[in-house]
């Protein structure tokens, strides 16, 4: 055992010397900082390509004009089966919609009511489609109008508020049927819903003081275009007290004109008054204003009518 132990003691010093000589050289702080300052890239730098600017080309929009086909000399309407159906039962979309005289259409509505057993006093409506185009790109602005119908269908009188700072004008307004008349002191009461009305009229001098009511009243806010701003208060009250208001939405007018229990002549005169007032809103040199007219009751289908017979002679020629 003595011999092996002596050989081991001889080998150990040699192994220790080899171990310490094989160590990696030590790095100083200056070398470490130098290495940190150098940028390290673990990937290959990709070459960046500049984006080419795209030149926008303005393409002219080609608007295809709808060609109006003249069907007068044809044996049948373009795209339809025939001018009129032969049988009582037929597909409506295969034939042109019949256009009735206004008096005939009103009589048909009254017959529909008897067949349907619907209320006799149901409202009668008219729907007008308008051509709002003027010269070039100009159009007729949507408007609101109040007219006096020859035969009013409402039994109650409209509630009207008149804004004026003149005590004498306020007294005249109350004598001519105004519900409330006063100055800027009414603004707070209207905002608090203490005063409500169907129409609001005003003199020109007080309109600026009523601007806080613009969001509250919206379409009822007094405007000169609607005829609710002026100096002749009795005349305005005469129109709005029993007047009928209609408005243009997009290119359509849809409003009530009568009740079905009224005489046929009364309904016809009310329709004529609405059509005449609407047609006067566009100059005659730009062509007809009304393109199509439909009358109906609450429970019936819509009937196309010949509105040209309701226009004055000058409008027909235009």
Oligomer: single chain
Radius of gyration: 43 Å
Question: Uncertain regions: pLDDT < 50 for 5+ in a row?
Answer: 24-34, 44-64
Structural class: alpha/beta
Strand proportion: 15-25%
Figure out the total of helices. 9
Round the mean pLDDT to the nearest integer and report it: 80
Give the total of beta strands.
10
The largest pleated sheet is described as: 7 strands, mixed
Report how far the terminal alpha carbons are from each other: 139 Å
Strand order of the largest sheet: 1-10-9-2-8-7-3
Question: Which series of helices and strands comes N to C?
Answer: HHEHEEEHEHEHHEEHEEH
The dominant shape is extended
The amount of helix comes to 25-40%
Main location: mitochondrion
Subcellular location: Mitochondrion
Protein name: Large ribosomal subunit protein uL1m
Pfam families: Ribosomal_L1
Give the topology, please.
Blueprint: H1 2-21, H2 29-37, E1 99-100, H3 102-116, E2 123-130, E3 144-147, E4 160-163, H4 167-175, E5 180-182, H5 186-191, E6 199-202, H6 214-217, H7 233-241, E7 244-249, E8 252-259, H8 264-279, E9 290-297, E10 303-305, H9 313-317
Parallel strand pairs: 1-10, 4-5, 4-6
Antiparallel strand pairs: 2-8, 2-9, 3-7, 7-8, 9-10
């Amino acid at each position: 055992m003595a011999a092996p132990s002596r050989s081991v003691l001889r080998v150990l010093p040699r192994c220790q010397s080899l171990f310490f000589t094989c160590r990696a050289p030590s790095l100083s702080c200056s070398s470490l900082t130098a290495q940190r300052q150098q940028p390290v890239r673990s990937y290959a730098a990709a070459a960046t390509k500049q984006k080419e600017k795209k030149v926008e080309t303005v393409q002219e929009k080609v608007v295809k004009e709808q060609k109006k086909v003249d069907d007068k000399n044809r044996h049948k309407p373009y795209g339809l089966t025939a001018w009129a159906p032969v049988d009582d039962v037929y597909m409506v979309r295969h034939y042109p919609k019949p256009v009735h005289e206004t008096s005939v259409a009103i009589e048909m509505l009254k017959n529909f009511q008897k067949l349907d057993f619907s209320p006799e006093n149901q409202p009668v409506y008219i729907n007008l489609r308008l051509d709002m185009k003027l010269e070039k790109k100009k159009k007729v602005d949507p408007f609101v109008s109040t007219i006096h119908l020859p035969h009013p269908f409402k039994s109650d009188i409209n509630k009207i508020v008149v804004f004026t700072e003149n005590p004498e004008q306020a007294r005249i307004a109350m004598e001519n049927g105004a519900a409330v008349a006063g100055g800027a002191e009414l603004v707070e009461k209207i905002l608090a819903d203490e005063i409500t009305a169907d129409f609001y009229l005003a003199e020109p001098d007080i309109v600026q003081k009523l601007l806080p009511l613009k969001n509250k009243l919206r379409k009822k806010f007094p405007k000169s275009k609607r005829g609710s701003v002026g100096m002749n208060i009795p005349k305005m009250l005469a129109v709005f007290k029993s007047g009928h208001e209609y408005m243009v939405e997009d290119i359509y007018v849809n409003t009530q004109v009568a009740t079905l229990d009224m005489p046929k002549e009364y309904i016809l005169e009310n329709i004529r008054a609405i059509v005449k007032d609407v047609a006067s809103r566009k100059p005659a040199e730009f062509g007809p204003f009304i393109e199509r007219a439909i009358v109906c009751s609450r429970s019936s289908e819509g009937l196309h009518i010949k509105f040209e017979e309701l226009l004055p002679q000058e409008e027909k020629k235009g």
